[in-house]
Amino acid sequence: MSIKTLLIDDEQHNLDNLRALLAAYCPQVDVCATARNAETAKSLLYLHHPDLLFLDIQMPGQSGFDLLSSLHNSNVGVIFVTAYDQYAIQALRFAAVDYLLKPVNIDELQAAVERAYRQHRLKEQHQLLQNLVHLVQAGHHQEEQRIALATAKETRFVKTSVIIRCESSNNYTTFYLAGGETLLVCKPIYAYDDLLTDYGFIRCHQSHLVNKKFIKSWKKEFGDFLLLTDGAELPISRGKKEDLKKALRL
């Protein structure tokens, strides 16, 4: 599992150097984008929902601290990378994962990334536990079960009975709800597969998880598809056919 990372520094050669070091020495890091100012970085944060920032402090316009102060309820990890050591105490107030001085030392970089990776795994485990707690607290009636879905702006507690389907796109999952609302969650679909199986959800394709009660028909012309009550058509992969037939008692 990789940790999605955004690099922010006002000097391009620093970005290029850090990206090269991460590629060579930190394989668990996946650099999704780079930014040279706080304004661009903020847009990229909402676009990519990274797990980790490598953040320069002194930049033209808004500083790295200004950027973090403008983020509300952000759960992203931060490793400060700066040429100056007088900001260390202030960095601690932002609960930074680490504080690296330029030029970056490879051993210190690897240690910082490993700490960030461990923290990321703990956050994921906490989210799964939170989901389990809410499912248990909701009672024994499946239609009242709820799941916690963390979007960029909030954590929504959604009844599993109103989730029509889940669709995967790389490390993101879109939840389609009855009524037409959609929620984009920065987690891969497999994180919800086992969690939702007990509540009537089945996998018809590696990219699709569907609530059985919203299946209208199995279409067999021009390939196999599931037609849902909201009009969506989901492909049925060859490897999922037999499991799907068993789940639908066909």
From TrEMBL:
GO terms for molecular function: phosphorelay response regulator activity; transcription cis-regulatory region binding. The modification 4-aspartylphosphate is found at residue 56. Transmembrane segments: none annotated. GO terms for cellular component: cytosol; protein-DNA complex. PROSITE patterns: HTH_LYTTR (PS50930), RESPONSE_REGULATORY (PS50110). GO terms for biological process: regulation of DNA-templated transcription. Residues 147-250 form the HTH LytTR-type domain. Keywords: DNA-binding, Phosphoprotein. Residues 4-117 form the Response regulatory domain. CDD domains: REC_YesN-like (cd17536). PANTHER family: REGULATOR OF RPOS, RESPONSE REGULATOR RECEIVER. This is DNA-binding response regulator. It comes from Spirosoma pollinicola. The lineage of its organism: Bacteria, Pseudomonadati, Bacteroidota, Cytophagia, Cytophagales.
